[in-house]
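In the current project phase, the collection of sequences with tokenised folds has grown. A sample record is quoted in full directly below:
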Amino acid sequence: MKIGLVIVGDEILSGRREDQHLSRVVKMLTSRGLCLSWARVMGDDREDLVNCYRDSFARGDVVLSTGGIGATPDDLTREAVAEALGTVTERHPFGVELMEQFSRDTGKELTAERYRLIEFPKGCDIIPNPVNKIPGFSIQHHHFVPGFPQMAWPMLEWVLDTHYADMGDVGYREYSLFVKGANESRIIPLMEQLMAEYAGVKVFSLPVMDENPRIELGVKGPQLLAKEAFAKMKAGLPSLGLEWYRA
């Protein structure tokens, strides 16, 4: 099962806010032996969001989604998810209890606008929010949290530890080295050889263009396979006339 990330907000696309979620989610996943397969940044456009979620539901991926679940008119994630699933939004019963507790704790009136915060697609489950108790929601391995990092991150940690604790591969490893002064065309045959021989391992090449041009070349996958493929990579570079050093 692949894991995807959807980051929702016009403010990211316009540059008014800088995304902080991608790098943090990658770290969360890596620490649990998981990896991110794809990520999308989406604007506040209902049709685009419907199409995005309809596609990800059809793929059967685990999806972490940040943003767009507030109470203002530009928060469209809840309705887009409901439309993508062919259902409707409704006040979540436990969400109502949380909102009532929020009102008692803060003294804030429960207006129709505040109740909108717990109007979720029918059949969803609650994601607890340790900051202000106003929840996110989960449905069909899709998990929706606010855009605010201080809320989103602990909520996503809870999702991963509650629902996917047994999904990670603690033996997943990544190994890399630097190749001096090479261009990628010289290492392509070696990369193709390794990919053909080690089907469970990914091979990557990342050129570094500065005063000391080099390529970061590496492998990632299950520890034993990745280690074996990395050893073969190191052994194969000298035959191509290439020098390498540790990353």
